[in-house]
Amino acid sequence: MEHLFFFYFALVIAASSVLVVGLRNPIYSALSLLIMFFHVAGLYVTLHAEFLAAVQVIVYAGAILVLYLFVVMLLNLKQDERYHRQWPVAAGVGSVLVLEALVLTVLKGRSSSATPAVSETSAAELGNTEALGDVLYSTYLFPFEVASLILLVAMIGAIILAKKDLGGESV
Amino acid sequence: MVMMYELIPVLPLAAFLILGIFGHWIKAKAHLVAVPAVILSWCISILAFVDVADGHHSTFRLYTWLTSGMLEVHIGLTIDRLTAVMLLLVTTVSALVHVYTIGYMKGEPGYARFFSYIALFTFSMLMLVLADNFLQLFVFWEAVGLCSYLLIGHWYERPSACAAATKAFIVNRVGDFGFILGLLLVFTTFDSLDYATVFANIEREAAKTINVLDPLGGSLDVSALTVICLLLFLGAVGKSAQVPLHVWLPDAMEGPTPISALIHAATMVTAGVFMVARLAPLYNASPAAMSVVAVVGAVTMVLGATIALTQTDIKRVVAYSTMSQLGYMIMACGLGAYTAGMYHLLTHGAFKALLFLGCGSVIIALHHEQDMRRMGGLKDRLPITYWTFVVGSLALAGFPLTAGFFSKDELLVSAWGSGPLGQVLAVFGLLTALLTAFYSFRLVFVTFWGPSHVDSHHAAHVHEPSPTMTVPLIILAVLSIAAGYLGIPEFLSPMFERGGERAHGGGATVVMLVASAMGLLGIAGAYYAYVLNPDLPDRLAQRWRTAYEWSLHKWYVDEAYDRSIVRPTFAAASELWKRVDVAVIDGAVNGVARAIAWGAWFLRLLQSGQTQHYALGMALGAVVILTLLMVI
Amino acid sequence: MIPLSYYVTLSAVVFFTGLVGVLIRRNIIIILLSVELMLNATNINFVAFSQSLHNIAGQVFVFFALTVAAAEVAVGLAIIIALHRAKNTINVDEFQLLKW
Predict the structure, then answer these.
(1) How far away is chain A from the Cα of C75, in angstroms, using its nearest Cα?
(2) Does C99 reside within a domain?
(3) Closest to B115 in 3D by CA, of B154, B64, B74
(4) What is the ipTM for the molecules in this complex?
(5) CA of B592 vs chain C CAs: smallest distance (Å)
């Protein structure tokens, strides 16, 4: 049963990521990405990371993708040439890399193939959200604060970069 | 007393240094430095001569130059009879030329420079003559060659002068190559370069032989002493303008006339003869080398005389005459008559310097005209020059009672008495005496007698030059006669065992009479051809066209050298330049630069500015790392 | 239990797809989308390992990666807008001033 869910999610993720890269219209690419995001969230749920699944949907699908769609529609683009001249090389490189990654996984994966099935219960005692929150506000407090600072800077930066001439017309 | 002899060469050296450094400020007063120095040197030479005549033979070392293993070379002076007479010759002629130069080079911009160079030359020649070892001889041999180069090219703005100076130096160098080899061979054979040591050991080394075909894998044993003598003689061939290295002497007439008198008549060119005479013990031990020397001298003697018959430049006539007389001297030395050779060298020094200075006087009077066809009728306008010139020509022709007569007679008699080869060569000598008399009086008659062909501009201004120029002429004229009565042969003969015997008897008298007859015949012939019958020479030239052309063009020796040596060398140099220097060496150096530039161009293409190219680079890097992870 | 290698494989596939997308596409927006793909792939990796090794740190990292991705998208799109204003195109080939 689990395998079924996994393979479904994995297949759709792979297919939609290919579509993202391959489709001509940027709106269609963005929408494929949206599908991918949802299925990644689903994958997280199967991995008992429910909180992350929720955050994934809210942030990625809800904020980031919407931002992309806004920009695409704002810029009102024409359809340009799709692929760069170096696409054969890139395709070659990509396939080689995938192959090598697979080989490496198979070769090295053997050595530590034992996946301990022990502590399912221990993780289930504490729910995902609580476990995450527990760690986030104790051990990882400093990166947490820094992350908020990053967001602040990004916000300011985005406003300034996208503004029209400084001191000129209002945005 | 003995220490004073060092001043003989040092005084001219001091004059050279002072004029060389301060000449720019001294300028027209340069003669005040040079002339007293050389005259003082002359006075001390007389003292040395008197000392030697009393029987003292001085040798002293000044300075040890280098010691290296078995080789020990020092700067030293030796004064014996041979040296004493040479000292007198050099200082006398040099002093007279110094005085003459005051008038000749008056007003010239290079006045001080000229005096500094002839002072340097005098120093070098004196040191050469005073040397007591081979290496010192060689060093100053080269030094006089250098001075000759500097002085021939004195008017260096003239390309012909520069070319002549270079030619003189290069041809001398060819001879010096042989000299150096001879020097090395002397050292390897005798383990020393001192005259005294070498002469003492000749008997011991007489049997040594060298296999001259060794490098080629053959075998031909030649006596070591013969090889040494021949190699050293090669140097003399270059320096004394013997055939085949005589080609520089006529071109050396590009230099001012005083140096033609000093260097190319009396002193430098006689260095070769001096060397053979100084090394007489060595040459006496090698009869084969002596025969070669004699024959070379005879060939030069004849060649020079035949060419002088047709030349029209007065200085060239005298130059070829010098070459011919040098041939006489070398021939005499080659036949063992060293005393006679040196005697002729001394008298020749006097009258040939006189002839050159006389030419100079004529040239100055006619505003640097040197072609005898544009002269004539000068004997009344330039009386002193004319009469001294006649005296010099009489001495050259061997007219009885002049110094030239006595020395030439001595020479031919000794040659006749020295064996079968000597007799053959003496016949040639007598024939050459005829030619000598003929061409020297041809020069006199065409230049001084007959109708004047002088350029009309200058004809009115022809006048006798200043006393600074005429007094040396007179002194030399007196010497040209008086030198025959000074008893030079008796003075020199104790030095040379073989040449010491003076031939007496019937053979000697006949030779003397024939020589005198030849001289008188030559003078008469010249008189007939150039005074009585002026168009005879042209008719003769037409009749014997080939002989005339060969004589006029110096037997085409220069042309032969040009074809066989000069042009191939230039061609080879040009090819080397184009093929090797430009194509290979420059090509390699520039090629490296081009290769780097190309490499840079290639690498620049990597910076396309397109982000995705850079990203591709990163992806390729990832491929490499993953591959490494896979493999390792 | 689903073996870890399956998740790693999936992550690799998505990641290299995103990489190829960066290398291939000329539209800057699509390039940024491909970058998002790559980030997501690493997130999948982290969560899978976190689950496999029973260490919550992996998920914390995903949390932060998510945050940074959001910030990066904001700034990136702002830059795209600025570029578009300058050259009226978002074909990445047009932006090649940093070259020899």
Answers:
(1) 5
(2) no
(3) B154
(4) 0.90
(5) 23
Using the 8-state DSSP alphabet, how is residue A78 labeled?
P
Q: Is residue C76 part of a domain?
A: yes
pLDDT at A156 exceeding the cut of 90:
yes
Q: Are residues C23 and B616, on separate chains, in Cβ contact within 8 Å? A: yes
Q: What does the DSSP assignment read for C55-96? A: -THHHHHHHHHHHHHHHHHHHHHHHHHHHHHHHS--BGGG--
Q: Which tens digit of pLDDT belongs to each residue from A10-65?
A: 999 999 999 999 888 889 999 999 999 999 999 999 998 999 999 999 999 999 99
Question: Residue C45 sits in a domain of what CATH number?
Answer: 1.10.287.3510
| Contacts of B575-580 spanning 24+ positions with Cβ under 8 A | none
Asked if the structure places residue C100 within a domain, the reply is no
Helix (H), strand (E) at residue B339: helix B338-365
Structural domain count, chain C: 1
- Give SS3 for B626: helix
Rounded to an integer, the average pLDDT of B593-617 is 87
> CA-CA distance, A147 to B126, in Å (whole number)?
103
The domain of C69 spans: 4-94
Q: Is the pTM of this model over 0.80?
A: no
pLDDT at B202 over 60: yes
Q: pLDDT value at position A82?
A: 66
8 A C-beta contact, residue B15 and residue B116: yes
Most confident of A77-81, B31-35, B288-292: B288-292
Q: Which chains contact C through at least 3 pairs of Cβ atoms less than 8 Å apart?
A: A, B
Question: At B400, phi and psi to the nearest 5?
Answer: -50, 145
- B209-211 and B71-79 as β-strands: parallel, antiparallel, unpaired? unpaired
**Better pLDDT: C61 or B369:** C61
Angstrom distance (rounded) from CA B71 to CA B193? 8
B506: part of which helix (H) or strand (E)? helix B506-527
Give the whole-angstrom CA distance, residue B438 versus residue B518.
9
Q: Which residues of C touch A10 (CB under 8 A)?
A: 6, 10
